[in-house]
């Protein structure tokens, strides 16, 4: 069968309409009932809906059947999104609510703002799959699946999925075993978290780059030309977007320095936490014994331990010692420290 043309030759409009419609329906349900059960579930499943929709519409191509490359990139997106949505749904059923939304859940515009951002996230990250299945791309013949680029993409995808899924399970089990007191002081520093402070973010980033790598093969091998060629390469926006988001916006910046600051000021096993920070790469997995001996300039460059992540007590803390009082030149230090323990900074509330 031939690919179906809907609104445009790249399925950009239909995927945008479906995404906005689906997210708005879920938003009104979540806002009306004031609960968080479907928020992350809606985001994850939206990827699956777009992958299935564009694959079904784009079935056909130049040879009258689905090309294996279309199937692979679509299936990879479906597996990733179903796994993510399923895990987040399971977790929210256990916790009951998501504290990220405490200050916006009852505010219509603030809560809607989050859902609008989720629409953009889904639509942008889906671009490699959307464009791979689009009529203006599938009308060109392609090299058989199995090129070096395809195999490298499959290997990277498997590595990324293992890191993302494995670290999610490990962190969940770690937290479920903690008592209220030990959860404040324990450090998850084994398994995946011995190699990276954010193995789930590393896995997510690798997954998106692997999907793009496979999707762009038709253009890179010289089979696709013109606007379709440009469109496939433009889908690099998807892995760039997720990388930028996790490294500079909502991922590591809200975790690295704020969590270290909280540990230090409240005296929650700061020594153990700092030892983990010093020995563990922030993103790219690396043996801790070697990372601990790594020169600072290599940590800042090759291993992406950017200054914005680094917590310096002298610059970023309100207290002089871990769990101690303010550095006010003496006098009243103990009482000031006790007052600070009860005060939660704006940064901490964001985490």
Structural notes for this entry:
This protein is mostly helical and 351 residues long. The protein has helices at residues 12-33, 39-58, 68-95, 108-125, 127-132, 135-138, 148-177, 180-185, 199-215, 217-220, 226-234, 237-249, 256-266, 270-279, 288-291, 296-300, 313-316, 333-341, 346-350. The chain has 19 helices and no strands.
Would you summarize the structure shown here?
This protein is mainly alpha-helical and 351 residues long.
Radius of gyration: 23 Å
> Which range best describes the helical content: under 10%, 10-25%, 25-40%, 40-55%, 55-70% or over 70%?
55-70%
Principal-axes geometry comes out as globular
List low-pLDDT spans.
Answer: 326-351
Count up the helices. Answer: 19
Could you tell me how far the N terminus lies from the C terminus, measured between alpha carbons in angstroms? 50 Å
Largest sheet: none
- Number of β-strand runs: 0
Order of helices and strands: HHHHHHHHHHHHHHHHHHH
Briefly note the structural class of the backbone. mainly alpha
Strand content: under 5%
The overall pLDDT average reads 87
Keywords: Membrane, Transmembrane, Transmembrane helix
Biased composition (Gly residues): 330-340
Transmembrane segments: 12-33, 45-65, 71-90, 111-131, 151-174, 201-220, 232-254
Pfam families: DUF1295
């Amino acid at each position: 069968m031939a690919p179906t043309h809907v609104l445009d030759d790249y399925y950009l409009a239909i995927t945008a309409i479906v995404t906005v419609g689906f997210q708005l329906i879920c938003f009104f349900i979540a806002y009306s009932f004031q609960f968080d059960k479907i928020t992350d579930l809606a985001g994850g499943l939206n990827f699956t809906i777009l992958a299935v929709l564009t694959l079904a519409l784009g079935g056909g191509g130049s040879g009258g059947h689905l090309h294996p490359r279309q199937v692979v990139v679509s299936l990879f997106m479906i597996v990733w999104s179903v796994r993510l949505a399923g895990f987040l749904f399971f977790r929210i059923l256990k916790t009951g609510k998501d504290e990220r939304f405490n200050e916006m859940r009852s505010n219509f515009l603030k809560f809607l703002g989050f859902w609008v951002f989720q629409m953009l996230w889904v639509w942008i990250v889906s671009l490699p799959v959307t464009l791979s299945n689009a009529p203006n791309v599938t009308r060109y013949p392609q090299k058989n699946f199995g090129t070096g680029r395809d195999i490298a993409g499959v290997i990277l995808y498997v590595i990324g999925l293992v890191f993302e899924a494995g670290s999610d399970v490990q962190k969940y089990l770690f937290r479920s075993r903690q008592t209220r007191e030990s959860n404040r002081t324990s450090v998850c520093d084994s398994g995946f978290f011995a190699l990276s402070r954010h193995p789930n973010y590393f896995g997510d980033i690798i997954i998106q780059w692997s999907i793009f790598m496979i999707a762009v093969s038709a253009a890179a091998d010289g089979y696709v030309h013109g606007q379709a060629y440009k469109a496939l390469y433009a889908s690099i926006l998807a892995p760039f977007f997720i990388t930028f988001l996790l490294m500079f916006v909502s991922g590591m910046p809200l975790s690295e320095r704020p969590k270290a600051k909280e540990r230090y000021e409240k005296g929650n096993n700061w020594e153990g936490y700092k030892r983990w920070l010093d020995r563990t790469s922030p993103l790219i997995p690396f043996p801790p014994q070697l990372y601990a001996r790594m020169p600072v300039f290599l940590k800042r460059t090759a291993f992406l331990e950017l200054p914005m992540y680094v917590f310096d007590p002298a610059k970023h803390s309100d207290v002089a010692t871990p769990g101690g009082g303010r550095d006010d030149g003496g006098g009243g230090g103990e009482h000031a420290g006790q007052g600070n323990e009860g005060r939660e900074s704006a940064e901490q509330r964001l985490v």
